[in-house]
Amino acid sequence: MEVMMSILIGMLFAGGIYMVLSQTMLRIVFGTSLLSHATLLLLITMGELKRGAAPILTAAGGPYVDPLPQALILTAIVIGFGTTAFSIVLAYQAYQTLGTDNLEKCRGIDDEH
Amino acid sequence: MLLFAVLAPFVFALLLIVLAKPIGNKIGYFALPIPVMVFVYFLLQIPSAAREHYPIYFASWVPQMGINLSLSLDGLSLLFALLISGIGSLVFWYSITYLDAKERLANFYIFMLIFMGSMLGVVTANNLLIIYLFWELTSLSSFLLIGFWYDKERSRYGAQKALLITVLGGFATLAAFGLIGQIAGSYELSDVIAKAALIKNSPLYPGIVILVLLGAFTKSAQYPFHIWLPDAMEAPTPVSCYLHSATMVKAGIYLVARMTPILGSTMLWVLLISIVGSVTLFWGGYMALKQKDLKAVLAYSTVSQLGLVIALFGYGSEAAVFAAVFHLLNHSVFKGSLFLVTGMVDHATGTRDITKLRGLSKAMPITATLALFGTFAMAGLPPFNGFLSKELFFASSLETINSSFALGIWSWAFPVLAVIGSIFTFIYCMMIFFRVFRGGPIPDDLPHHPHEPAKGMLIPTALLASMTLVIAFFPNLFAKWLLAPAAKAVSGSLPQIHISFWHGLNMPLLMSAIVIGIGCLLYWRLDKIRIFLAAMPGRPSANHFYDWLIPGGALVRFGGRVGKTHMNGSLRDYLVYILCFFMLLFWGTVIYKDIFIVRFDNLAPIGAFEITWFVLVVTAIFTLVSSKKRVAGLFALSAIGYSVSFFFVLFRAPDLTLTQLLVETVSLVLFFLSFKYLPKDLISSQLSKKYKLFNALISIAVGFSVTCACLIAHSNKFYEPISDYYVASSKILAGGNNIVNVILVDFRGLDTLGEISVIVIAAIGVSALISLGKKHLFKEDNKDE
Description:
The complex is a heterodimer. Chain A contains three helices and no strands. By secondary structure, chain A is an all-alpha fold. Chain A has one domain: Helix Hairpins (Orthogonal Bundle). In chain A, helix 2 runs antiparallel to helix 3. The radius of gyration of chain A is 19 Å and the shape is elongated. Chain B is 74% helix and 2% strand. Chain B contains 34 helices and two strands. In chain B, helix 5 runs antiparallel to helix 6, helix 16 packs antiparallel against helix 17 and helix 19 crosses helix 21. Chain B is elongated. Classes of the chains: A mainly alpha, B mainly alpha. The interface between A and B is large, with 89 and 101 residues.
């Protein structure tokens, strides 16, 4: 299972990076979302999979799956949502202001000379 | 007390920042007492320093790295400290009248105080790294003061030049100190001196010498690094007097003197210093004669005189070191007073051009008298102090002929250069006095009508200039209390030298006679010589190299070109650099540490269910990457998001499943809500095949790296997971059954607070961006109407 998950995570990363490297704003927003999904799976896979029950204490007692990655992921999901929301609005605002969604055209101001 | 004397200027500089506004243009009167008090404190230390019961201060700062705030005030430190605070007092006093009330007075006095404090720090510090710290502070304050009139282009040029050259030297010094500290095992000066033999026998010794001297020579404006000093004359004249003739440029000399017990009396040390010093003495004198600006003459003259003192320290004998310390004091006195005189001339006439000034002694008799003191002392004429030290200088230069570092016939070069350099000195001194103050009626075309300057400038100058006579008539008093203890700190033994005007007929006197004789002869034909000299080249000079390299020059252009090739403004390219770097880091570590171990024995089982979802997610990834319509892309993305929550179900994470489902749904809604305002297409411009292929390669490489990282991390578990602690103590310590929740709200509650803050910041960012957008839209609406 861990091997399969590793391959899946690699593919999610590859897809996310490919999206982010392209020039269009919306693709970059989608790409970052994809990357955050990949990270979530990466975190849970690192804690060894399916080695016990859900980490809620019961009278029967352990073993439980590793609770720590789950706590991390819970935080990550929420922050991921925050960044996604922010990047949507950023893309919208940049698109409105600059009149283009092509990042190759947004190279800053030439302030050197 | 010693600590306070050194830190007082810094403390008061801070105070002045606060008080500048309420005090207004009377700020000089508030700054003046500080150098005076410090001067009085150091005066009181003279008896104890002479008896070698000098005050010390010690406090650990970063003991692990050998950095201690340790100060000590031996003879050498005291001599410098007295010069710094004494001349500092006079210069502060002088500046009150010299500077116009409209100038940025607060800046001026604050910079001056910072300078004074750092200079005192350099000379009293007993730890190499503390010396370095204060050393760089002097460079910095010098930069600020040279650029005091920063609206002038030449000031900025001079300030930048001085900073670059002296900081370059400072950097070399730091490297040298590091090496010394490594060898000696301590940065405390007293410890290092005890290990001098160890350092001298080290194979690194030549490197250390060169690095130390690079620092000393850049700071003390030795050939070929002297080029910054003439340009530093763009500073106000009190600054030129204080920093660039009396004190800061002597920091290099101080370093040479301090390092002599550690690095000195080897062939390399003696020859390098004597030769550079002698060449500088000659070259500075030669260049001084070519100048028209009175301050430029004095600047090159300073270069030349610093060369003289450096050469004396290079000779290294007990008598030479004594002469060096003596001339150091004398030079500060006469050159300082000459700079102050120049300031008064400039103030009174509005020009410093030697070719325009004439006969000022009629209008400014007192100033002329003070100028006479200064110039005659510098020329080495009796009965002024310069005569005494110059005689000692000649005697020491003759000693080198018989020194142990026999250079054969070449050792005659030292006395010969000494005489030639002194002839130049003699001529330009006479030129300053007889051209500017004598030589016919006052010309009518001066910008201002010359008049005697105000008392506020005259009295400090007179005090300093009269010292030329005081020292000359009571030389042995100064020798006993100040100079001999200073010389002892360098050469290790207390010199028994009796100074007097008349030593009988001997070689030094003959050399003086030669200097005066030839000097008078040449002065007689001065105009012709100056025409001749003007035609002579000012080369070889490092100025051409500096100008080629720095200000908008080769280095800047080269840097610009290098920057443009990779910093091209494309975010995508930057991202590629970052990704490549991380992959390099990852694979480099994997190969270097040889940790590519993947084991397949500790795996969870896979069912048909999992494989189905795997195929589904992979399909969604390809759909997303290749979709041209944004709705299709969004559905693919959501499919992946919901699949993640399904995986959470499989992996026994109920909380995650719920949260992920919720967030995924909200995200989907958010995307749909904002679709109206977002770009219509996923692909706005057709990309070339090559470009896409390259992106694909990079992303596949990253994906592959991540997969490998996952497998390696899974196969190599070095430590027991810390989660066991949470499982065990969730109920006992926090009273909760849901371990994940307990971790979030209890064990790692502060982290959760941080997470909430991030969300708040994101929310503020979102709302700010949206309100910005409203304004933007509103403007466009107006335009339409």
